[in-house]
Amino acid sequence: MNKSATASIIFFVAMAAATTLFAQDKEVMKKIESARIALITDRLGLSPKQAREFWPVYNEYAKHKMALRAQLIEARKNMNPQTISEQDSKRLMELRFSIKEKELNLEKDYTQRLMNVISSRQILALRNAEDDFKRLLLQRIEQRRRQQINQERMRQRQEYLRKQGNN
After folding, report:
1. Domain boundaries in the chain?
2. Quick one: pLDDT at residue 21?
3. 9-23 b/e with 16+ CB inside 10 Å = b?
4. Half-sphere exposure at residue 28, Cβ-oriented, CA atoms within 13 angstroms
5. Nearest to 15 by CA among 144, 149, 140
6. Which among 43, 18, 69 is positioned nearest to 125, based on CA atoms?
7. What's the burial of 83, exposed, middle or buried (CB within 10 Å: 0-12/13-18/19+)?
8. Which of 18-22, 125-129, 136-140 has the lowest mean pLDDT?
9. Residue 32: which of 48, 21, 43, 47 has the closest Cα?
10. 147, 140, 131: which is closest to 13 by C-alpha?
11. How confident is the model over 29-79, as pLDDT tens digits?
12. Band of the pLDDT at 167, cuts 50, 70, 90?
């Protein structure tokens, strides 16, 4: 079995385990993170030396990016688009633009730092791997949601049939 196939298996096993308990379980989040690391490491073809240097820089970048997004989420938290004032709406849009600009500057800065560790080709592969991981995770979450809906429908149908049999 090749390296890519092994990483894919690890990824899907971790994703299957993760989505069974998704919510706020720290173990689940660790499994998702492990799957993300496996996918990115595989897609970039990181050598052990590159991985040791890459992950601290990348994790620092991800932490800063999440902090920026948290600012926007916090600002939006209690704002209803239907009732927000024009002035607050403008402030929120300006904050959004400011955060997007900060995210772009952050990405530029960390891309330069990462290019001291990995090649520009690997940087492009990183962006694709991040997008693929998000898409796969969202697909898995949607699949799990559909399974739960189907299970609930089946449970309701069985309950209905059980009640019909008692009459």
Report:
1. 1-46+120-138, 48-117
2. 47
3. ebbeebbeebbeeee
4. 13
5. 140
6. 43
7. exposed
8. 18-22
9. 21
10. 140
11. 888 889 999 999 999 999 999 999 999 999 999 999 999 999 989 988 878
12. low
- Asked if residues 69 and 95 have their Cβ atoms less than 8 Å apart, the reply is no
Please report, in angstroms and rounded to a whole number, the separation of the first and last CA atoms in the chain. 58
pTM of the predicted protein model: 0.70
Q: How far is Cα 64 from Cα 54, in angstroms, rounded to an integer?
A: 16
The helix or strand, by DSSP H or E, that contains position 107, with its residue range, turns out to be helix 86-114
Six-digit token pair at 3?
Answer: 């390296």
Q: Which residue has the tokens 């490491």?
A: 41
- Extract the tokens encoding 12: 């899907």
